[in-house]
């Protein structure tokens, strides 16, 4: 993990922020595939920051789904400039490996966004409460009885709120502003993709 320069925040060390993922509002809110995958990969390192091996399955779940989407992008780059185009073009081939990968990736990102949003909006809550609350509303309904205990263990392994925020940088106001910016951008992308995935042509 990259060292945080003095006066900066952890978010400044990321290769790509969700705030810098192009969205083509004039073209069905098309989300640019390359930048989205870079931002998603960058955000998975948040689970390293949480400092517990219990989060390894959460991170590997996200990275595995990122790989499925990227593999399709590499196989058909001309048909995959936006995530929406990637899904629709893959489904035409009667396959849905990347489309399903993106579905799970969006669920994982929704979980991350809701966890962080809950913690931002509830200053007295510990991280474990925020993560548990978000897990119940996002991933848990889709997980099997085998997977649920693995993820539940991770929710209980989160560091104390103060410890986590200190890891994000030593200037609390800058950390707060950077966290709000990233979460807001992530929420926007997640909402666009969830709405798209609800559409008939995006299902298999």
Give the class from helix and strand content and strand pairing: mainly alpha
Percent helix, as a range, is: 55-70%
CA-to-CA gap between the ends? 38 Å
User: Can you tell me the CATH class?
Assistant: Mainly Alpha
Protein name: Glycolipid transfer protein domain-containing protein
Keywords: Coiled coil, Transport
InterPro entries: GLTP_sf, Glycolipid_transfer_prot_dom
Q: How do the helices and strands line up, and which of them pair or pack?
A:
Blueprint: E1 23-24, E2 30-31, H1 33-44, H2 46-49, H3 56-75, H4 83-92, H5 97-121, H6 127-137, H7 147-156, H8 161-167, H9 172-197
Antiparallel strand pairs: 1-2
Q: Which short descriptors sum up this protein?
A:
Glycolipid transfer protein, GLTP; 61% helix; 204 residues; globular; 9 helices; two-stranded antiparallel sheet; mainly alpha
What would you note in describing this structure?
- By secondary structure, the protein is mainly alpha-helical.
- The chain has one domain: Orthogonal Bundle (Glycolipid transfer protein, GLTP).
- It has a two-stranded antiparallel sheet with strand order 1-2.
- The longest helix has 26 residues.
What would a concise description of this structure say?
This protein is an all-alpha fold.
């Amino acid at each position: 993990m990259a060292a945080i320069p003095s006066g900066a925040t952890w978010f400044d060390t990321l290769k790509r922020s969700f705030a810098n993922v192009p969205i083509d509002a004039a073209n069905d809110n098309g989300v640019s595939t390359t930048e989205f995958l870079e931002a998603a990969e960058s955000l998975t390192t948040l689970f390293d920051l949480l400092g517990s091996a219990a989060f390894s399955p959460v991170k590997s779940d996200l990275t595995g789904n990122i790989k499925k989407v990227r593999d399709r992008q590499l196989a058909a780059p001309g048909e995959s400039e936006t995530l929406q185009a990637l899904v629709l073009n893959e489904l035409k081939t009667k396959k849905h490996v990347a489309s399903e990968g993106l579905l799970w990736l969006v669920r994982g990102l929704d979980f991350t966004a809701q966890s962080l949003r809950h913690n931002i909006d509830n200053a007295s809550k510990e991280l474990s409460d925020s993560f548990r609350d978000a897990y119940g509303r996002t991933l848990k309904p889709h997980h099997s009885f085998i997977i649920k205990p693995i993820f539940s263990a991770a929710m209980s392994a989160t560091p104390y709120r103060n410890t986590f925020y200190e890891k994000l940088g030593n200037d609390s106001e800058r950390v707060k502003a950077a966290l709000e910016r990233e979460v807001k951008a992530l929420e926007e992308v997640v909402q666009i993709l969830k709405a798209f995935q609800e559409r008939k042509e995006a299902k298999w």
